[in-house]
Fold this protein.
Amino acid sequence: METALRPESEAQLRAVLAWALAESTPLEVAGRGTKRGLGRPGQYAHRVDTAALAGIMLYEPEELVLEAKAGTPLAAIEDAVAAKSQMLAFEPADWGRLYGAAAGAATIGGVIACNLSGPRRPTAGAARDHLLGFAAISGRAEAFKAGGRVVKNVTGYDLCKLLTGSHGTLAVLTSVTLKVLPTPETGATLVLDGLDDAAAIALLAEIAGAAIDGSGFAYLPAARGGAWRPPGLAPGVGAALIRLEGTRASVAERAKRLTATIGARAPLRTLDRDNSLALWRGIRDVEPFVAAAPDAALWRLSLPPDRGAAVVAAIAVQRPIEYFYDWAGGLVWLQTSAATDGGAAAIRAALADVGGHATLVRAPDALRGAVAVFEPQAPALARLTRRVKDSFDPRAVLNPGRMYAGV
Amino acid sequence: MKMPALDQAVLDRRAELASALRAIVGNAAVIDRPEALRVYESDGLTAYRQVPMLVALPATTAEVSAILALCSGRGVKVVPRGAGTSLSGGALPLGDGLLLGLAKFNRILDIDYANRCAVVQPGVTNLAITRAVEDAGFYYAPDPSSQIACTIGGNVAENSGGVHCLKYGVTTNNILGLEIVLMNGEMVRLGGKHWDAEGYDLMGVMAGSEGLLGVVTEVTVRLLRKPETARALLIGFPSAEAGGACVAEVIARGIIPAGMEMMDRPAIHAAEEFCGSGYPLDVEALLIVELDGNAVEVDEAIERVRAIAQETGAVSIRASASEAERLAFWAGRKAAFPAVGRISPDYYCMDGTIPRKRLPEVLRRMTEMSARHGLRLANVFHAGDGNLHPLILYDANTAGELETAEKFGAEILTLCVEVGGVLTGEHGVGVEKRDLMGTMFTEADLAQQQRLKCAFDPDGRLNPGKVFPVLHRCAELGRVHVHRGHVRFPDLPRF
């Protein structure tokens, strides 16, 4: 029977970890537990979460910095910064609904631990690029901190990068300091209807590399892209989507130029601000695949953007898939049957030649236990990864096995 | 500055090591003559000098791997070096160590416009990347002042910045992949041409690790499209407070300039005498604000910043009307260091970062320190990101002035930490700020950083004596302290 512990102070959390260390007892580490289905399935006798370590500790809009306890709901932070016309520019994705949790329930600590970024990632950076500092308790039950409250800081190793995306396997975050940025005055989305995958990805790559300063480049294919279509997009039509953000004058000017450059290649329309917001929120939160198909495997592929369409085509030859693209082709969400290996071999073979990685984001426990959830590592990197884990959590008490066996 | 004690056993086998190195890289690529070794005795922080035991100049990853494995086996310390422009002594050699020069890694391997990235060897200079891609309309964003000479490998080691960081980030935000060689000779690839390589972000850890974790042998950098237009404003203020208020207000109103630089009166005067940029001389603070993007948005932002400057008490405002004028605005700022070098026999450049709003207070307290130490001070400031570069003017030929300058510098950095900032924004800790690490970090913080070092280099052979004030053995750091007797379930909420 699992015991779930919810410490109300850093000291209590440290006591829990000291006990786990003394007993060499593995703990499942969580924020509010919205993404417990992410990672390799594990058997943990006990769970500890940071839900009670919540609250914004400091927010200085003119310094572009916010510090919050790790268990602070992401929604609370987004509300606070929105009130000052600011934002978390990496557009943190809310994956909770993929696992049946309520929308907006995630904590900021969980977002950082999973390095969750949205469509703005190629231009604004990922979660890892916006974490300025943190405090945490290691698997050695020792409190430590790194980084600071300023954007430019090279004092000591950049442990902010290491902790971001470490899935709670190195230390339990207790507070995070984030860079915030002004919210663009307005946004609009240009839609090109009817392009096929290859043409759409080539076009998005071209525009991502042009002086048009877009902040979102996605493609929803005509068929096999999930049934989801936000207001303003027609079902059954492939849609290449380009988001422009900035001042009104700037967005209008860039939309005009883009229309002049590419308007002849496909029918081109503009989504207004509200539809545009709904569209990119949906892409961010993987809306096409939120409704879990029974016995399906949901994969997230990160790869060189110009190879997106070719990789998808190679996988589609092997097995039936549904999918869509973000990051100008550099991010592919792909769902397929969980049968056999859930597509692991076909997907990873398709990526092997071009570089990149595939993560099995959602699948039945049995499949996540049977195939590598995270991209398998070369031997030297796997050994280094294990030594890094040992240096923070020598008795493997924090989420052991969640990313890799033995880590 | 205390460095690790010389290892006599290693020094005794110097000739043998030189032969073994020659077997790997060939005769010409191993330097052991005293006069040739002297070239490498310091980096950009010339106050510290040490001739290395030997220098090796490998040309391939396989050679780097063989050299590190050799040194690992023989217990020889290794200091990696790019162009040697570090301002913190990061590439300061060790008297019983091998200096590993990466200068031969000078090729651009692949320019991939479709994926907006380039794969380069670590010895390629920062500016050479931009030069290689600018005809196609691209550039590499981080632009440290030393960009004509500094190498991308060194930029990764120091996580270098530049004047455009606020909008475009520093090195770590602009790299996608690395190939590194560990001290045991193992080669590891991190990332690639894709975003957000999963697993632990060891590429992020390598950036700014100051050559202590691994040797970078290949870098994949992001390329950005050159903005269509850039314009700058040159704004004079009667006080640092007014200048600081303008900076805060620009950001509060949602404008993120491509660059926002401030200079104080001594720096303005030195730069103007040196360059004749047309800086106003009757102001206490001068701000350069650069906006980039398309012409419509840039013109719009220029007018918004101009209005903010007026509201915050600017006494002179000029907007660049041409590219030549914009470059003239920058010329004085970019030459601020040599300009200060003209008015003083020596200067010592500091590199703290502070929360922007503490600027007036920090300037005031530094002025007090200046009077107390009897040394002049000039300030240039990356105002957008809070990175302060006070230049302490001194004369090394006057007995005691260097020591006073160092003491003054340490006080400035301690002040930066006290107001919520950090010891170093972009120059690195190196040997220079090593002994100040305790002002910012607890022993537990530093121990955890050193444990990470142990994961990469368990015997502490790679660039020892830098960054950490006290070297602990990995076995000692790794010991687990268990406090038995903790109640099985502490008294806290369950659910």
Notes: The longest strand of chain A covers residues 171-179. The first helix of chain A runs from residue 10 to 23. The radius of gyration of chain A is 21 Å.
